[in-house]
Amino acid sequence: MAERRRHKKRIQEVGEPSKEEKAVAKYLRFNCPTKSTNMMGHRVDYFIASKAVDCLLDSKWAKAKKGEEALFTTRESVVDYCNRLLKKQFFHRALKVMKMKYDKDIKKEKDKGKSESGKEEDKKSK
């Protein structure tokens, strides 16, 4: 119960997203190159931050119109804006964990490599 209260407080501290933030998040969702994977039994799409920054630097918000300032001028300004979107929970961070091979599997692969090279040497000597 307490977790729900804390979560509500956190959302209230950050505030509601503006129309501009929603538009930028939507642009990022559909124009940034994404990949799909299986995470804890759910199908998820993910993107790489450097590609998202490049995508936003090529967007209409990086180009200034007459009488208006550009929203994104440098990579740092894009990173700051993405951090703001992260706090407003438009997306979340995840760490990609690579599966480690067990020691037995590694030993089997080494044994296979040795036996194959031994066979090749036998063929050469004949």
TrEMBL record:
<keyword id="KW-1133">Transmembrane helix</keyword>
<protein>
    <recommendedName>
        <fullName>Translocation protein SEC62</fullName>
    </recommendedName>
</protein>
<keyword id="KW-0812">Transmembrane</keyword>
<dbReference type="InterPro" id="IPR004728">
    <property type="entry name" value="Sec62"/>
</dbReference>
<feature type="region of interest" description="Disordered">
    <location>
        <begin position="106"/>
        <end position="126"/>
    </location>
</feature>
<keyword id="KW-0813">Transport</keyword>
<dbReference type="GO" id="GO:0005789">
    <property type="term" value="C:endoplasmic reticulum membrane"/>
</dbReference>
<keyword id="KW-0256">Endoplasmic reticulum</keyword>
<dbReference type="InterPro" id="IPR036388">
    <property type="entry name" value="WH-like_DNA-bd_sf"/>
</dbReference>
<comment type="similarity">
    <text>Belongs to the SEC62 family.</text>
</comment>
<dbReference type="GO" id="GO:0031204">
    <property type="term" value="P:post-translational protein targeting to membrane, translocation"/>
</dbReference>
<keyword id="KW-0811">Translocation</keyword>
<keyword id="KW-0472">Membrane</keyword>
<keyword id="KW-0653">Protein transport</keyword>
